[in-house]
Write a structure and sequence with these properties.
The complex is a heterodimer of chains A (241) and B (168). Chain A has 241 residues and is mainly α. Chain A has one domain. Chain A has helices at residues 3-28, 45-68, 75-106, 115-135, 140-155, 157-167, 188-240. Chain B is an alpha+beta fold. Chain B has 2 domains: 19-57; 61-146, OB fold (Dihydrolipoamide Acetyltransferase, E2P). Chain B has a 5-stranded mixed beta barrel. The longest helix of chain B has 26 residues, at 30-55. Chain B starts with 29 loop residues before the first helix and ends in a 22-residue tail after the last strand. The model of chain B is unreliable at 1-17 and 158-163 (pLDDT under 50). Classes of the chains: A mainly alpha (241), B alpha+beta (168). At the A-B interface, helix 3, helix 4, helix 5 and helix 7 of A face helix 1 and strand 7 of B.
Chain lengths: 241, 168
């Protein structure tokens, strides 16, 4: 199977899995004893956060380190990191939006400045900053190194977000699955639907990352080409004068 | 990565070796743009740190902590956390009265505004407000936030309505 075909199938399977997750989450799973129907956000919100924090920014941090390490330095690492951050920012913003929608009926507020929410907002700003930094014209090597350092600094916030509910008092509840005791406090069909949501959004992340990476390669090819055109024009000018 | 685009013309491309070029569409100088990105980023991060460190590191005081430092707190606004004691909730024209407990300590709360949907006895909540100016020890709040747990348990399928009145 070619890369393009594999990418396509990962996309199709992931979208189907998300559809099944939504069906299970909205129709099959029961309401929660405490939250009633509001619990259904649990089949989307944590999975989005999982993709954003651990997968996207994890991949970005690892590839950035691999770029900075001379033996593994290549523009492929730089492109993967940039693609992962772009997908990660989308998922972080979706995490903030779905969390806000969940917070209003259950907590009673759209937003509060507790440690979990504040550190997540900070994460979004830091990685938007990374994307802005990449847009600053620079020598490609300089840009890649600069971006790699920025990604690693921004990624320091990831463990802070994760442990914020343990280290500080927060309105946000602690972890259901990855809690300090590693004892999930969710059972039956609710737990299976939660697991499916993690798998489905993980697949969606892989698909988006592959597609975005291919676009990054094409973008660089395109600008290489326009550089060739520009060089040819300059040479022609030189010959004419 | 294939190298099949190698057609031997001047348009030879090798994405793996070729350094990506950045289109410089803007007339703003790179250094200035870098500085602008830096300034905007610093402002945003600064805002979040001021907003966050100001409130999130000491997000709430528990009932015991608040009682212990009642005189120092005076009428300053802070978040108070405790469990809603059973049988203490009563409606007022402006909102609700109830008692927050933590172990054996308790604080009477008068809230302005209707509580959120999940508000009920035995739930841990955070109220935002201050101690009454008359020194009665009553906490006057204008916002209630409900802390729900990280446990998810199916409502009993046999029940028509749950304890909080919501339909199954």
């Amino acid at each position: 199977m070619t890369r393009a075909k594999l990418t396509k199938w990962i996309g199709i399977v992931s979208f189907l899995a998300v559809a099944v997750d939504i069906w299970l989450g909205l129709w099959v799973t029961p309401p929660d004893a405490q939250q009633g129907n509001f619990v259904r956000l649990v089949y989307i919100h944590p999975a989005l956060a999982w993709v954003a924090l651990y997968l996207a920014f994890g991949v970005a941090a690892i590839c950035s380190i691999l770029y900075l390490w001379p033996r593994t330095r290549s523009f492929t690492m730089d492109r993967i990191a940039a693609s992962a951050v772009e997908v990660g920012v989308v998922f972080t913003v979706l995490t903030l939006i779905t969390g806000s929608i969940w917070g209003r009926p259950t907590w009673g507020v759209w937003w509060t400045w507790d440690a979990r929410l504040t550190s997540t907002a900070l994460l979004a700003v830091l990685f938007v900053g990374y994307l802005a930094l990449r847009r600053v014209p620079a020598d490609p090597h300089v840009r890649a190194r600069r971006s790699a350092i920025a990604a690693i600094i921004a990624a320091i916030d990831v463990p802070i977000v994760h442990f914020s509910v343990v280290w500080w008092q927060t309105l946000h509840q602690g972890a259901t699955v990855l809690n300090p005791n590693l004892t999930p406090t969710i059972h039956g069909i609710m737990a299976w639907t939660l697991l499916l949501s993690f798998l489905a959004f993980t697949g969606l992340f892989v698909w988006m990352l592959l597609v975005r990476f291919d676009i990054a390669v094409l973008e660089d090819l395109d600008s290489d080409e326009s550089l060739d055109v520009a060089l040819a024009q300059r040479r022609a000018e030189g010959a004419a004068s | 990565m294939s190298e099949s685009t190698n057609s031997g013309t001047s348009q030879e491309m090798k994405p793996e070796q070729g350094a990506p070029q950045i289109a410089t569409g803007s007339k703003v100088r790179p250094r200035l743009r870098l500085a602008m990105v830096g300034v905007i980023l610093l402002l945003a991060v600064g805002f979040l740190l001021v907003k966050g460190l100001g409130s999130s590191l000491d997000y709430f005081k528990t009932v015991k902590e608040a009682k212990a430092s009642e005189t120092q707190l005076g009428t300053s606004v802070f978040r108070l956390e405790g469990v809603v004691e059973s049988g203490t909730i009563s409606q007022t024209t402006l909102g609700a009265r109830f008692t927050l407990t933590q172990g054996t300590s308790s604080i009477r709360v008068v809230n302005q505004g209707s509580p959120p949907q999940l508000f009920k006895a035995t739930m841990p909540v955070i109220v935002v407000g201050h101690f009454a100016a008359n020194g009665s020890g009553v906490f006057e709040s204008n916002q209630i936030m409900v802390k729900h747990s990280a446990s998810y348990i199916a409502q009993h399928p046999g029940r028509v309505t749950a304890g909080d009145g919501s339909k199954n």
